[in-house]
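Working notes for the structural subgroup meeting. M.R. asked for a predicted model of this chain before we commit to crystallization trials. I am recording the input and output together here so anyone reviewing the notebook later can reproduce the run.

Input as submitted:
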Amino acid sequence: MTDPRLQQLARTVVHYSANVQPGENVLIRAMDAHDAEILAPFIDEIHAAGGHAFIDYADYAVNRQMMLSGSEEQFKLDAAMKLEQMKRMDAVVIILGENNVSEYADVPAAKRDAYRKWYKPVTNEQTKKKWILFNYPTKAYAQLAEMSTQAYTQFLYDTCTMDYGRMSAAMDPLVELLSQTQTVRIVAPGTDLRFSVKGIPAIKCDGRVNLPDGEVYTAPVRDSVEGTITFNTRSSYLGQSFGDLSFTFEQGKIVSCRSDNQTKLNELLNTDEGSRFIGEFAIGTNPFINRVMNDIGFDEKINGSIHFALGQAYENADNGNTSDIHWDIVLLMKEEFGGGEIYFDDVQVSKDGRFVLDSLLGLNPEKLI
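Returned structure, recorded in token form:
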């Protein structure tokens, strides 16, 4: 018997997040989630909405082998076929069910970068569609979060099926205020960072793209970032783990950096010119996520947090930065993590992870639960 929580998640994904309409083509990209019982509720809901379901199985271990032994010509041909399929889709549902989150850890950087270069057009085409990404509960994800599998599973379903319509309405004043802001300043232990967001849109993430969701993002004017930021969470990217992260910026560019994984950090920052610039700034607002899960899909949504992404900017909040990487890194600003303050045009909008402006009080956790 199918878990009723999974059925509820399928309804949320298909009818709210993807908003599938009659006649639409919907690609389900199952990343390590190969069990037919996992996919069945999503297929059924797509068909019930009048859509057409297509399945693309992917396996991280297989992808690793492709990177290790494949040639650029192989990557180019495979990516071209996937691109043609993606062009015919109206929506994409991405289910992540990883059994080993470090599967790519030993892939040489040159191979990884070549692989990602050729598949980047597929990803770019996907972003033009209605798309939604979320985890299926696995032991690997539970281990990352330092939770039992049962506890993680319940937590995932709770956060993915919350009342996103209610949170969406509460986000509107923050979107409006950030859209009118010229300068943002972040102050926290080891952090004093200032940048302009003038002319760059603010976008709310309210369950339409990622589950769980809960952030409002924009991007700094590319060359405006000045100062230092020190992160208080570990960050995983491309199979590598980074702690004790700190970056100093001058005219938007990282000019010095620190990590407990310095060699790999330098390697990432040297991916291309854009990898040393910020492509995204965001504020987390999900009322149910209060702790680090060691999974960026959750951690970037923690209420009382902010995050920056090094590298590629989003098309709908574009600061002109382009890169083959988009690496989100989270700073927790609640008092128990050292506290912090956010200023818009020198007016304090948040202190120790709580909004302090009257217009934004509706985004504090107790107002959304």
